[in-house]
Structure formats: structure tokens, C-alpha cells
């Protein structure tokens, strides 16, 4: 018989309100919100104030609350909430990609030790059920790569730049007004947010635990008109792509802006949408696309996890239990375009080879092959006058 579950929610921002909305509009899910823990009791809320508390223990120590839903921005507080709830034998659903990515080994162990499920589909690609598919459908031996656009904010900005000729600043402001980008957009535009997602997907795709700081991320905040012109002249667009790929028994991962040609499935993923490509030995490429930002899109993924708990679903982490987890490496060659202003800004000696060079009084660029580890260590990439784009294989 299907059970009823009582929910205790932490946080009532964009995603919390999105969850409230989709839960109320969905018939057939026997879940009700019992308490919502918030920081500011004086802020006006769109629902009855009797739902709210400022004391976490009203949820964590309430034996009638079955599922804790964690939707807050504070990474440390989020980890404390989730770990306490799991130790208290409560199932947990979370959307906090940074908290999960930074604590994956500990969170995995807490699930094993306390025999309770922890689901976090909403942390990776909002409305795309990518973790569930990696868990249930793809056997590790067959999967070669997971790559794609997994940040709705930057994709919205890049779409506006390429489709409507907006400036970076105007496009960012629009994304913030629509709730796709945070007030402080650093995590999005510098590629940290998609990196946290890639760290989570690496575990479910290949069974490999990786610390976020091991994965190189470089965002779109150095992009200028010269780079945009370079892309247009080659009939390309620019997309910020997270990539994890198995090669020669190891796996590499990074988040970098890419030049994308029209034949690529990711070329037509616009605005706040995400697109994920899975590459496997027998099925070649499979493509998932869906909204990657916004309250109800993320709220729907949270609701899907809550619904799964009604049927006692949990992640089995099958790939961790297999004996052939690939080791993580940054020892891989990438073909890149690097734009800079003066010769002293880039160390060209670090390139394996250079196939194209351009110089003008205003800008210079090279196209060549370089090792990912060298890029990760390159101080010259911190210079605002230097930009990097990966060219398609």
C-alpha cells in the first residue's frame, strides 16, 4: 500500500516556492508539508505563517516527519542539516550541488551506515533526470562520456549574446532579473556551479570520487567581442560545457567554454535549457534536454525524488561496487584557442603544438594543443586579458 509522507523543508526561496507550487498542483502524490525552516521570520511569505519555524530541531527531531528536504544556500549549514537528518534515520532530498560535491564520500558513507536514502536529482540538471538514468540504465562498462550544458544561467547569457547581440553585462542582468542567475553570479559565470554538477555525475557515471578542486573550471567571464567574432567567422557558437570522459582506463573531467559547430546537438540548446549527451559503446550518443534553471523546473525534480521515496527508491551506486573504477586524471590533450593582448601574457612554450597564430595591434591568438594539467596550473589564465575556448575534436 502507498504510504503518506510528511515533509520538513529547509529554505523557502526560489526552489522551495517552486516545490510548494508543483506539490499543490500535482494530484496523486501522498506528501504534505508539515514544517518549513527559514532564517528570517519577519520576511513576508506567500503562504500561511503557521508553516514556518526558525528552529531546525522542529524538523530534525520531529518523529512524525519522514523526509527532510534541504533547499538552502549555505553549504556548511546544508551539510549539517543533511548529515543530522540521515543519522536520525530520516530520508533526505537535496538540491545543493556544492554541498553534495564537496562532501560526496561522507554522504555516501552516511547512507550506508544509517540505511536511509539520500536523493539529489535536482542538484545536477534541474528538470533532466540524469542521475536516475545513470543509476538505472547505463552499465559502467558501456559508458564512455557524459558531457553537456549543465548551467542554465550561462547558457541564457550566451544565447542572448549570439542570438540578440546583447552585451555580456546586459544578458547577465536579464538572467538575474528572471531568477536564472544569482545576485552574485560568480559560481555560474566562472564555471564553479557546473563543476559541482560534473563531480556528482562522475560518481554516478563511473563510480569515481573526485574532489571539486581536482577538476579544472574556466568560465565565460573573460569573453569579449573579438572571441565572439572569431566564433561567428567559423559558423560556431560558444557554450560552457562540463565534460567527463573515460579514456585508456582513466577518466578526465573539466568545465570549459567550447566552440560548437551547427551539427553538434548542443548547438541548438538555448536560453535556460540544459542539454546532456551520453556516449556509450553500443548506443553511440543519447541526448537529454530540459529546463536547467527556475523554481518550478528544479522544484519538479525535487518532487520527483519525494515521489520516488514513496516507493522506497534509493541510489544503489552500482558503479562504486564494481571492481574497475577508472582513476581520475588531468593528463589529457585539448585543442584550444587562446586570445591575449601582449606576448608576455601567455607562455606559448607550454603548448604541445601550435597550428594557427594571429597578431594585430589590439589582440593576438593561437590555436594549438595543450595538456589539461598545464591549463589547470597556468597563472596566465587568471589575467582578464586572456581567454580560452576549446575547439571540437
Automatic annotation (TrEMBL):
<dbReference type="InterPro" id="IPR036291">
    <property type="entry name" value="NAD(P)-bd_dom_sf"/>
</dbReference>
<keyword id="KW-0560">Oxidoreductase</keyword>
<keyword id="KW-0028">Amino-acid biosynthesis</keyword>
<feature type="domain" description="Aspartate/homoserine dehydrogenase NAD-binding">
    <location>
        <begin position="11"/>
        <end position="121"/>
    </location>
</feature>
<dbReference type="GO" id="GO:0009086">
    <property type="term" value="P:methionine biosynthetic process"/>
</dbReference>
<comment type="pathway">
    <text>Amino-acid biosynthesis; L-methionine biosynthesis via de novo pathway; L-homoserine from L-aspartate: step 3/3.</text>
</comment>
<feature type="domain" description="Homoserine dehydrogenase catalytic">
    <location>
        <begin position="129"/>
        <end position="306"/>
    </location>
</feature>
<dbReference type="Pfam" id="PF00742">
    <property type="entry name" value="Homoserine_dh"/>
</dbReference>
<dbReference type="GO" id="GO:0004412">
    <property type="term" value="F:homoserine dehydrogenase activity"/>
</dbReference>
<dbReference type="Pfam" id="PF03447">
    <property type="entry name" value="NAD_binding_3"/>
</dbReference>
<keyword id="KW-0486">Methionine biosynthesis</keyword>
<protein>
    <recommendedName>
        <fullName>Homoserine dehydrogenase</fullName>
        <ecNumber>1.1.1.3</ecNumber>
    </recommendedName>
</protein>
<dbReference type="GO" id="GO:0050661">
    <property type="term" value="F:NADP binding"/>
</dbReference>
<dbReference type="InterPro" id="IPR019811">
    <property type="entry name" value="HDH_CS"/>
</dbReference>
<dbReference type="GO" id="GO:0009088">
    <property type="term" value="P:threonine biosynthetic process"/>
</dbReference>
<comment type="similarity">
    <text>Belongs to the homoserine dehydrogenase family.</text>
</comment>
<keyword id="KW-0791">Threonine biosynthesis</keyword>
<comment type="pathway">
    <text>Amino-acid biosynthesis; L-threonine biosynthesis; L-threonine from L-aspartate: step 3/5.</text>
</comment>
<dbReference type="InterPro" id="IPR005106">
    <property type="entry name" value="Asp/hSer_DH_NAD-bd"/>
</dbReference>
<dbReference type="InterPro" id="IPR001342">
    <property type="entry name" value="HDH_cat"/>
</dbReference>
<keyword id="KW-0521">NADP</keyword>
Amino acid at each position: 500500500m502507498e504510504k503518506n509522507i510528511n515533509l520538513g523543508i529547509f529554505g523557502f526561496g526560489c526552489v522551495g516556492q517552486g516545490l510548494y507550487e508543483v506539490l499543490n498542483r500535482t494530484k496523486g502524490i501522498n506528501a504534505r508539508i508539515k514544517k518549513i525552516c527559514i532564517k528570517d521570520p519577519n520576511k513576508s511569505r506567500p503562504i500561511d505563517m503557521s508553516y514556518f519555524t526558525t528552529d531546525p530541531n522542529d524538523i530534525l527531531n520531529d518523529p512524525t516527519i519522514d523526509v527532510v528536504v534541504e533547499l538552502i544556500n549555505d553549504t556548511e549549514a546544508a551539510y549539517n542539516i543533511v548529515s543530522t537528518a540521515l543519522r536520525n534515520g530520516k530520508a533526505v532530498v537535496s538540491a545543493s550541488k556544492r554541498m553534495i560535491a564537496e562532501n560526496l564520500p561522507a554522504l555516501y558513507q552516511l547512507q550506508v551506515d544509517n540505511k536511509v536514502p539520500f536523493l539529489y536529482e535536482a542538484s545536477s540538471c534541474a528538470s533532466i533526470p540524469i542521475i536516475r538514468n545513470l543509476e538505472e540504465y547505463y552499465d559502467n562498462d558501456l559508458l564512455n562520456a557524459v558531457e553537456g550544458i549543465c548551467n542554465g544561467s550561462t547558457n541564457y547569457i550566451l544565447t542572448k549574446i549570439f542570438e540578440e547581440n546583447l552585451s555580456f553585462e546586459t544578458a547577465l542582468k536579464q538572467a538575474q532579473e528572471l531568477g536564472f542567475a544569482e545576485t552574485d553570479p560568480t559560481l555560474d559565470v566562472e564555471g564553479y556551479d557546473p563543476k559541482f554538477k560534473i563531480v556528482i555525475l562522475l560518481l554516478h557515471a563511473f563510480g569515481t570520487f573526485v574532489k571539486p578542486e581536482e577538476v579544472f573550471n574556466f568560465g565565460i567571464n573573460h569573453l569579449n567581442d573579438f572571441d565572439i567574432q572569431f566564433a561567428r567567422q567559423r559558423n560556431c557558437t560558444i557554450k560552457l560545457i562540463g565534460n567527463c570522459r573515460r579514456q585508456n582506463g582513466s577518466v578526465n573531467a573539466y568545465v570549459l567554454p567550447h566552440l560548437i559547430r551547427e551539427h553538434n546537438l548542443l548547438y541548438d540548446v538555448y536560453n535556460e535549457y540544459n542539454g546532456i549527451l551520453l556516449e556509450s559503446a553500443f548506443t553511440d550518443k543519447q541526448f537529454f534536454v530540459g529546463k536547467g534553471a527556475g523554481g518550478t523546473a528544479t522544484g519538479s525534480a525535487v518532487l520527483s525524488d519525494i515521489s520516488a521515496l514513496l516507493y522506497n527508491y534509493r541510489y544503489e551506486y552500482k558503479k562504486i561496487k564494481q571492481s574497475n573504477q577508472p582513476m581520475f586524471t588531468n593528463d589529457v590533450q585539448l585543442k584550444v584557442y587562446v586570445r591575449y593582448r601582449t606576448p608576455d601574457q601567455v607562455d606559448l612554450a607550454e603548448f604541445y603544438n601550435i597550428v594557427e597564430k594571429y597578431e594585430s595591434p589590439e589582440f593576438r591568438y593561437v590555436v594549438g594543443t595543450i595538456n589539461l594539467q598545464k591549463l589547470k596550473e597556468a597563472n596566465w589564465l587568471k589575467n582578464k586579458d586572456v581567454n580560452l575556448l576549446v575547439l571540437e575534436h
